[in-house]
Specification:
With about 850 residues, the protein is an alpha+beta fold. The protein is built from 26 helices and 24 strands. The relative contact order is 0.06. Bound molecules: zinc ion (2 copies). One zinc ion binds next to α20.
């Protein structure tokens, strides 16, 4: 495959050589546009016959939207979307709600970065149906590449809404002229731009093996929208037309609002209410006159394009004719206000949609913007709370996205915890860094990369913070460009489980997909089937099977397989490859292709696995109910011994949290709810349940299996599940631990394993009570007394020892006793102490 960049360049030439067959030139000509070529080589369309430049900022001298604003409509931020949606709905587009900004359905990205990302990869690659053939969507997106410029240049953002105009149609329904006309009408009628103010560029787009022409809309040097026509795909034997043609038009809502209002910064145009409240709270009155002169020059402060920030300020001050100090004093607090407001908005969306700040992966970006914003607040000594600013945004956005206000309590709680963590971290980090630097000074060695990763990973210390502190002492610490990639690589290695990774590939590509009986009911454990293939005597493929293969974090079944000869053979492993299930036998098969075999799944094991799997979903739902809506599954495993679920949560679980989760889980077990687990078209499932479905990550395919515990938890899942929650018997949480920043592990048992655990505990309590000669509830204080007596025996002061009175405990007597004696094995420690005391007493 040729690289995208090369394809784009090549195809731009091809398309512009035959404009009529690649662009909506019929519409442009009808509207009176003429085609011209800019000195930069780009072909463009304009109605202004004297226009020589394409209008790209680099060809025509920057943004010019502040003088004599051309837009005839003054639209507020919300109005941009409301007007756009009304107009497109009338033209037959379906108006979609935004997708979450945490992109759980998309395995290639942490956050939704464009409107089309909502439909990638499964809709765009044809694996799933689009929600509608023609649609528009106000998609909130996150991109962190320009974070250092946010607040400074007046236009950069980490979070923005990309308004998408999309089509997903077969070639015979493709109408590029209409798609173009619809967008053209938005700019001329919706935004009210005279056509003299519009310039259109011919361009091309390429990505992921697909490509096509695109048309960019410019006005006054500002790119207002880009309409991409994904039409072709690269192939090994030449290129061809896609079976599904995709329209991908993305347009910045903030830019449209800003352009329409024609003054202030993009932040003032987007969230005026929040800016107003912050200014009032911190007591700043902006110097409006100076700001107005400064704004057109703000882009000179673009961090990416300057080496010396002081010189850049001097240049701006010089051009507008004020002193540098005066300018910075007036402007810098405003930049801080804008940054705080912008970052609070991104955090509001991300946390509402289930993101959590952490040291890992996408969570790191959230922590970084939180700390940048809080840094501004601290530096200026403002009495301003990030959670409160987030709430103001939720209020300002109430009409567009009411869900932000619904979830605001949880969002504010997470931000408050983040504040606490930042304070603690700053204290601890300073001490750790100091000692690291002392070590470097003493050893004269370089900081090892591994150590740098360790500091970041376990202590949450950013490598740049270490490098900065070291630099102050004249020591160079190198931070590789791919530092965060190295960190996540490390986590991937830790996460790899042999159970779900197989390197052996079986030759089963010629086999039909196995009919999966285990989806029908978990108690269907006996079946018959013709043999499809036998590989190396021990690997058997059947037409249908009830044997569950290791997948989705659930262990495989075992059991027996019997051929016409009547000799049973043990099934010791089950593997799925593509849609084909392969049974691994203990002995060579005594049957062949075409024979009918009988399969029997080991019921005890199957039931226990199903109990642990359904219990995993129950614990997930219970944790969400007890801890909050930010809880998502981050990993899970189900074996016969126990179940395990990792959830996203910002703190370690207290004993009280654990008890409440366990109680909630058992409440669902006792209410004996009927589960449903059928195959549902992905589109319908998403519409009915939203993205909560994807607890275990993205699920490919047009149809997905939806495991629904009505009113409690619903997940896309391919495991074996109970028919009713009551069949789990009972659920007991064994322990919980923090396994990574922002992720907590809960281990638990259900069914027989839980009964066994309860019986064992009962026996252990009875044994201890007998051993100590006390009531069961008195065990902890009896242990305290024993410990005191043992110490007296060692000191030889048994004569003065008098046994204290025992009290009853209301808690977990074994755990309390273990804490008193500081041991996991309470009974043998008690025996040892008693023997020592007996010896001392003679
Ligand atoms: Zn140009
Ligand atoms: Zn599951």
């Amino acid at each position: 495959m040729r690289p995208d960049k090369e394809v784009k360049k090549w195809f731009k030439g091809v398309a512009s050589a035959h404009p009529d067959s690649h662009y909506a030139t019929a519409v442009l000509k009808r509207e009176g546009f003429v085609r011209k070529r800019c000195a930069c080589g780009t072909f463009f369309w304009t109605v202004v016959l004297s226009q020589e430049s394409c209008g790209d900022p680099s060809c025509s001298g920057g943004f010019r939207l502040f003088e004599n604003n051309p837009a005839k409509r003054r639209l507020s931020y919300a109005q941009v979307w409301q007007r756009f949606a009304e107009m497109f709905e009338r033209r037959g587009y379906r108006v979609m709600p935004r997708y979450p900004v945490v992109a759980r359905w998309n395995p290639t990205m942490d956050y939704t970065i464009a409107s089309i990302a909502a439909f990638q990869p499964h809709v765009v690659n044809g694996e799933a149906d689009a929600p509608a053939k023609r649609l528009v969507i106000p998609q909130f997106c996150l991109r962190f590449g320009d974070v250092d410029n946010v607040g400074i240049t007046g236009s950069h953002m980490t979070g923005f809404i990309m308004i998408g105009q999309h089509m997903f149609v077969p070639p015979e329904e493709w109408d590029q002229n209409q798609a173009f006309q619809d967008l053209y009408d938005w700019f001329t009628q919706g935004l009210g731009l005279p056509k003299e103010e519009l310039t259109l560029h011919e361009d091309a787009w390429a990505g992921g093996g697909n490509y096509g022409p695109c048309m960019e809309f410019f006005s006054r040097g500002v790119e207002l929208g880009n309409q991409v026509y994904m039409i072709y795909e690269q192939g090994p034997d030449g290129d061809r037309e896609l079976k599904l043609k995709v329209l991908d038009m993305g347009m910045g809502m903030e830019r449209n609002a800003w352009f329409s209002q024609g003054r202030g910064t993009a932040y003032d145009a987007t969230f005026p209410l929040v800016i107003g409240r912050i200014l009032e709270r911190v007591g700043i009155t902006p110097n409006a006159e100076l700001q107005k002169r400064f704004l057109p020059k703000a882009s000179y402060l673009n961090i990416d394009e300057i080496d010396d920030i002081g010189a850049a300020w001097a240049r701006v001050a010089g051009e507008i004719g004020v002193g540098v100090a005066e300018l910075r004093d007036a402007i810098e607090p405003m930049q801080a206000v804008y940054s705080v407001a912008e970052h609070a908005r991104s955090l509001l969306f991300a946390l509402t949609d289930g993101g959590l700040p952490s040291n890992v992966g996408g969570g790191y970006n959230l922590r970084a913007i939180y700390r940048r914003a809080q840094g501004f607040i601290d530096r200026h000594g403002w009495r301003l709370d990030m959670g409160e600013v987030a709430r103001w945004h939720a209020e300002e956005l109430r009409d567009l996205f009411p869900e932000l206000l619904v979830g605001i309590e949880g969002t504010m709680r997470i931000l408050a915890v983040e504040r606490q963590k930042a304070l603690e971290n700053a204290k601890r980090a300073a001490a750790i860094i100091e000692s690291e630097i002392r070590k470097l000074e003493a050893s004269k060695e370089k900081m090892a990369l591994n150590r740098l990763i360790g500091l970041y990973d376990s202590d949450g210390i950013h490598p740049e913070t270490v490098a900065e502190a070291a630099r102050a002492k004249g020591i160079a610490v190198e931070v590789p460009d791919n530092f965060f990639a190295l960190v996540s690589e490390r986590h991937e290695h830790a996460e790899q489980r042999t159970a779900t990774r197989r390197s052996v590939r079986f030759p089963v590509d010629d086999c039909p997909k196995t009919d999966l009986l285990y989806f029908r009911s978990y108690d269907l454990v006996e079946f018959e089937s013709p043999v499809v293939k036998v590989i190396d005597e021990k690997h058997v493929v059947l037409e249908r099977t009830a044997f569950y293969p290791t997948s989705g974090g659930q262990e495989h079944d075992v059991g027996a397989m019997t051929g016409p000869g009547g000799v049973g053979n043990r099934v010791v492993d089950v593997i799925k490859q593509g849609g084909v299930v392969i049974h691994v036998l203990e002995e060579d098969a005594d049957f062949g292709v075409g024979d009918i075999v009988k399969g029997v799944v080991d019921w005890e094991r199957r039931r226990q696995l199903a109990q642990h799997h359904t219990a995993t979903h129950i614990i997930n739902g219970a944790a969400r109910k007890v801890l909050g809506n930010h809880v998502w599954q981050a990993g899970a495993a189900k074996t016969v011994e126990k179940g395990r679920i990792d959830i996203t949560h910002y703190a370690t679980l207290s004993d009280d949290d654990i008890h409440r989760i366990e109680d909630e889980a058992n409440r669902i077990v006792l209410s004996d709810v009927r589960l449903s687990h059928g195959l549902v078209p992905k589109k319908e499932a998403e519409e009915a349940h939203g993205f909560r479905l994807y607890q275990g990550g993205a699920v490919p395919g047009r149809e997905i299996r939806v495991v629904d515990i009505p009113g409690f938890d619903v997940e896309a899942c391919g495991g074996t599940h109970l028919n009713r929650t009551g069949e789990a018997g009972m659920i007991r949480i064994l322990r919980s631990s923090k396994i990574q920043d922002g992720i907590v592990r809960i281990e638990f048992v259900a069914g027989k394993q839980a009964e066994r655990l309860v019986a064992q505990r009962k026996a252990a309590v009875a044994e201890l009570a007998a051993l100590l000669g006390c009531a069961e509830r008195e065990i902890p204080t009896a242990c305290e007394a024993l410990f005191a007596e043992w110490k007296a025996a060692r000191k030889g002061t048994l004569g003065e020892f008098s046994r204290p009175a025992l009290r009853e405990s209301g808690g977990d007597v074994i755990a309390e006793a273990a804490a008193v004696l500081q041991t996991q094995d309470v009974a043998s420690t008690v025996r040892r102490f008693q023997a020592d005391i007996a010896k001392a007493r003679g």
